[in-house]
Structure formats: C-alpha cells, structure tokens
Write a structure and sequence with these properties.
Strand order of the largest sheet: 1-2-3-5-4
Number of strands: 5
Largest sheet: 5 strands, mixed
Shape: elongated
Distance between the termini: 36 Å
CATH class of the largest domain: Alpha Beta
Strand content: 5-15%
CATH architecture of the largest domain: 2-Layer Sandwich
Radius of gyration: 39 Å
Number of domains: 2
Number of helices: 7
Length: 297
C-alpha cells in the first residue's frame, strides 16, 4: 500500500529544492537589475520573503509531523508493554490459583483420610488386637472388623469418585451429573433439580464437560457444607456458542460484599479463567445464593 506521508515528503523535498534554487537565482537577478527597475527589484525581494515564510512553514509542519509520529510510536510501545504486563500478571494469577487449588485438594484428601479412613482403620486394629487375646469373642470381633473394613472400602471409593475425573468419555456429562446427584441423595435429604436446555454433549469437548462437572460438584459441596439448604436447582443452557450454568439454592445465603470468597469459589473462578469465562454471585443473608457462570465455546 502506498504511504501518503512518504508522497508528501517527496513533494515537500521538490518544493524545498525549487525554493532554494529560486532564492539563489533571485539574488543573481537582483544584481543585474538597474536602479530604473526598482519596482521589479521590490517584487523579487517580496517574493523571496514570502518564499522564506512558506519554506519555514513547510519545515515546521513536517518537523512537527515527525515528532508526532515518534510520540505515537512511543505511545504504542508503552501500550503494548502495559498489555504484556497485564497478560503476564494474569498468567501468574492463574498459575497461582491452580497451585492453590491443588494444595487445597491435597489438604482435603488428607483431612478425609484422617477424619474417616484412619479412624475406621484404628478401630479395626483395636478389634484385631482384642481378638488375638480374647478367644471367646474372637468371631464377633472379626465380624465387626469385616463390617468396618467394608466402610473403609466405601469411604475410599467415594473419596476416589470425588477426587478423580469421572469417565465422561464413557458416560457423558449429563449421565455423570445424574450419578453425582443420586450419590448425594443417598446420604443427604437435599432435593436437587437438574435441568438441561440445549446442551448437546457431542458439541462439548471433554475438557469443557469435565470443567462443568467440577464446577457443579464444587458448588454442591459448598451448599452441603455452608448453605443449610433444602433445595438446589441446576440449570444448564446453550445458546449458539455460549454455555450458561446457573446453580441456585434456598439456603441461609450470605453478603457477597463482606464475605471473603472461600476456596471453593476460588477454584471455580480459576477454572473459568482458563476459558475466559465469567462468574456472577447473587446472594443475600437468609435469601439463598445463585451462582451464574457463562463462557464461549
């Protein structure tokens, strides 16, 4: 593409050459003019003055354009630098959020093992020790050991189900969500309503399905721990290339302006940042909580 600024510079250069040539030529002509040609001499001197002013204006104009262009380049470099700083800051924040989430998962695993599995195994160990010295109650004690070991196996199975990714490639997102809801219903009276409008699993990459599953799992865990709710609504919706997820409960709620977001919400936010998603929280004391997320495919 032709640069109009370059063309203007060429035109100005031609004008400058012409102007300088005319100035020197007019000096030579003025020396040849006799006193009887004062009118012509005055006209030539006047034209030289005008030409000097025009040349000065041209030089100032193009000089200022060059300065403005340099300032614009510096401004563009500054903007690009700021954008790169923001991108780097965002990358660091996402990395930190992921590391924090991983550390939280490890802490959660340790607490679950300590509070449930370790205690059950401690009881089993105690019964085995009693069975070794108490022959009369040995059979009864070993049967109790068997019952507790079954509980240990079930605890580990549930823990594995919550920590490891579900087999979405086999079951799909919706089936996995129904299984999650059914598993909660077994141990809790919380009524969970799951609704899908327009979500087609074949349109969602497996990583996106896993992200949605984890967000729903995390928020349900928040509801069970903190909300004291009796009813939860999960609404999945897809409009063109935008996915919307809403999770609302009728629990005790909280003030989002004064409450510091917990690790669960931080985990959800860090997952959404990886797909440039948005998260909104609508909550009020004694008025439940609604979590709304959206992202483009």
């Amino acid at each position: 593409m032709k640069n109009p600024f370059s063309s203007s510079v060429k035109l100005a250069a031609v004008f400058l050459v012409f102007g300088v040539t005319w100035i020197f030529a007019s000096d030579l002509i003025s020396k040849q003019i006799t006193r009887n040609d004062l009118e012509l001499y005055s006209l030539i001197q006047h034209s030289k003055g005008v030409l000097f002013m025009i040349l000065a204006a041209v030089l100032i104009y193009f000089g200022s354009r060059k300065i403005v262009a340099q300032m614009e380049q510096e401004r563009e470099k500054w903007i690009q630098g700021k954008l790169e700083e923001e991108r780097e800051k965002q990358r660091l924040e996402i990395t930190q959020a992921v590391l924090t989430a991983q550390e939280a998962e490890r802490k959660k695993l340790g607490e679950e093992l300590h509070d449930n599995v370790n205690q059950l195994l401690g009881v089993v160990k105690l019964y085995v020790q009693h069975a070794q010295v108490n022959k009369e109650m040995q059979q009864e004690l070993l049967e109790k050991c068997s019952d507790y070991l079954i509980q240990v196996i079930e605890e580990i199975r549930q823990l594995s189900r919550s920590m490891l990714p579900p087999a979405l490639h086999e079951n799909g997102l919706l089936t996995s969500l129904h299984q999650l809801v059914d598993a909660i219903r077994v141990v809790n009276t919380l009524h969970i309503e799951l609704r899908n409008d327009g979500i087609k699993e074949t349109d969602l990459p497996e990583q996106v399905q896993l992200m949605l599953y984890r967000i729903i799992q995390e928020q349900l865990n928040n509801v069970l721990k903190h909300a004291a709710a009796s009813h939860v609504k999960i609404h999945l919706e897809q409009q063109n290339k935008t996915v919307h997820l809403t999770i609302s409960d009728n629990g005790k709620g909280f003030d989002p302006h004064t409450n510091i977001p917990g690790m669960g919400l931080m985990n959800i936010r860090s997952r959404l940042e990886q797909v440039n998603g948005k998260m909104l929280i609508h909550a009020a004391p004694e008025n439940g909580c609604t979590l709304a997320v959206s992202f483009h495919l």
